[in-house]
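Structure (tokenized):
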């Protein structure tokens, strides 16, 4: 953590001289075999406190773009199984950004089939956790921070482009952020992200994250998938 803070402070010296009112930062993410990396999280953080500003995910071809609104910002690029990359927002066109596989994060040899599958289903983006390396993420909060389109920290979950999310576990609205820390990632079946929740939710709700578990949990998680599907 101390090394990361020093790194961010050093980058301030790179970013600050750039005159910026607003600009579109773009690039394309590739792996070590020059294959595109879709559904990677690309997040703008403020400097030097690393507070979340906005974010997006890379497309099927690995491309991304988002608006930087201050010269005191930095890009954080992350996806499961690869080392996190930090990039200054200048130049605005970053070109090709190569991500390197993170053997320490994976902990063991992982075949491509073990990576989580993300797909669009109706108005939701669904990530399957079962059978993937995401089962080893840790707590529910740790897991959500690795889901495409999400930024999670200390129980606060933001959906890129929508803002703070309302969390549901097996169809039941989460009452306390501590529930995420009580939930183990290896008991989560899938995560659904809704940027436009629709009429079934309160009009004030801008985004929803729905967590479906593999089996019943204790207080706060005791709802079956059948109850969820009927929600």
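Design, position by position:
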């Amino acid at each position: 953590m101390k090394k990361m803070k020093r790194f961010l402070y050093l980058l301030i010296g790179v970013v600050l001289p750039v005159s910026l009112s607003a600009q579109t930062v773009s690039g394309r993410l590739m792996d070590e075999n020059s294959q595109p990396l879709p559904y990677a999280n690309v997040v703008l953080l403020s400097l030097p406190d690393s507070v979340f500003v906005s974010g997006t995910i890379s497309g099927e071809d690995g491309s991304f773009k988002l608006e930087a609104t201050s010269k005191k910002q930095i890009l954080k690029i992350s996806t499961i199984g690869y080392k996190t990359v930090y990039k200054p927002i200048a130049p605005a066109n970053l070109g090709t950004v190569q991500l390197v596989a993170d053997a320490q994060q994976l902990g063991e040899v992982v075949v491509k089939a073990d990576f989580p599958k993300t797909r669009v289903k109706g108005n939701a983006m669904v990530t399957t956790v079962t059978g993937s390396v995401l089962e080893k993420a840790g707590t529910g909060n740790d897991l959500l921070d690795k889901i495409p389109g999400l930024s999670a920290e200390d129980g606060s979950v933001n959906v890129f482009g929508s803002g703070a999310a309302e969390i549901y576990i097996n169809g039941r609205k989460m009452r306390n952020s501590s529930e995420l820390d009580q939930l183990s990632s290896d008991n989560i079946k899938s995560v659904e992200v809704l940027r436009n929740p629709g009429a079934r939710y309160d009009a004030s709700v801008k985004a929803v994250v729905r967590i479906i578990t593999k089996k019943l949990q204790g207080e706060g998680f005791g709802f079956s998938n059948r109850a969820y599907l009927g929600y």
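Reviewer-requested clarification: The first helix runs from residue 2 to 15. Confidence is low (pLDDT under 50) at residues 7-19, 219-231.
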